[in-house]
Amino acid sequence: MDFRRSFAVSCLAVTVPLVPVFAQSASQPEPPKWSLSLGVDPTHFDLHTPDPGVDARMVANLTRSWQSGNSRFARHVSLMFGTDAPQGFNPSGDPQCDCLMNLRRNYSALTAGASYDLLRASRFTPYVKAGTGIYYIVASRDPSKGFLTPAEVAYYQTDFSHSGFSLGVNGGLGLKLRLGSHEFFIEQMLHRFDVRHSGTGVYPLNIGIRF
Fold first, then answer.
1. Is residue 75 exposed (0-12), middle (13-18) or buried (19+ Cβ within 10 Å)?
2. Is the pLDDT of residue 190 over 80?
3. Residue 27: CB partners within 8 Å, gap ≥ 6?
4. Residue closest to 114 by CA, chosen among 92, 130, 136
5. Domain boundaries of the chain, sorted by first residue
6. How many angstroms separate the CA atoms of 49 and 109, rounded?
7. Does the global pTM surpass 0.70?
8. Which of 115, 140, 113 is nearest to 128 (CA)?
9. Three-state secondary structure along the chain?
10. Nearest Cα to 152, choosing from 73, 98, 194?
11. Pick from 129, 138, 154, 156: which is nearest to 74 by CA?
12. Band (106; pLDDT cuts 50, 70, 90)
């Protein structure tokens, strides 16, 4: 079993046993909170690529969370939006061929999951979280010049764009700091877009505020 499948199974194993806990705590009064965060994927961040453009993968998250004051468990529902910075590449592999193509990728997700506070002895609280969700990805390619010459057509026979939904999982570690009625947090997340196959994933380091 490779790392991606092991990660997917681990996230599901953490999330599923927590369902009864959520059902029990749902009857307790708990004011919901919103949080907003922005993140960059450290595994896709290179401002000096050999090809035109930069390698940068960015995400934004809007989250609604529920946590009672005497519980370490919290429930989350999130919307995630992400994009890769446009990057050029040569599909022919021939440096003499002037057939540069731009690659663009956008993705979004609706996820639900849980988090657990590991320690609650100070303003700083480390936590773990995991969940599952529906992911949608759109990838497109187009000639950087905006048109194709007859000599370049052979390099562009594959689909210019594709999109699709998939069932994915996510998990991560974080640290939050409470200041008054607000919380600031930093977390390293791992999103696997498809639990069935090896494929695209996003691993953002997020910084945000919960209010």
1. buried
2. yes
3. none
4. 130
5. 3-210
6. 28
7. yes
8. 115
9. CCHHHHHHHHHHHHHHHHHHHHHHHCCCCCCCEEEEEEEEEEEEEECCCCCCECEEEEEEEEEEEECCCCCCEEEEEEEEEEEEEEEEECCCCCCCCCCCEEEEEEEEEEEEEEEEECCCCCCEEEEEEEEEEEEEEEEEEEECCCCCCCCCHHHHCCCCEEEEEEEEEEEEEEEEEEECCEEEEEEEEEEECCCCCCCCEECCEEEEEEC
10. 98
11. 129
12. very high
What phi-psi label fits residue 74: left (phi over 0), alpha (psi between -120 and 50 degrees) or beta? beta
Instruction: Give the pair of three-digit tokens for residue 161.
Output: 């764009």
Nearest to 199 by CA among 157, 153, 158, 168: 168
Q: How sure is the predictor about 96, in pLDDT bands with cuts at 50, 70 and 90?
A: low
3-210 fold:
Porin (2.40.160)
Question: What span, in angstroms and rounded, lies between the C-alpha atoms of 209 and 201?
Answer: 24
Give the span between the Cα atoms of 64 and 36, in whole angstroms: 9
Distance in angstroms (rounded) separating the CA atoms of residues 13 and 200: 21
Does 64 have pLDDT greater than 90? yes
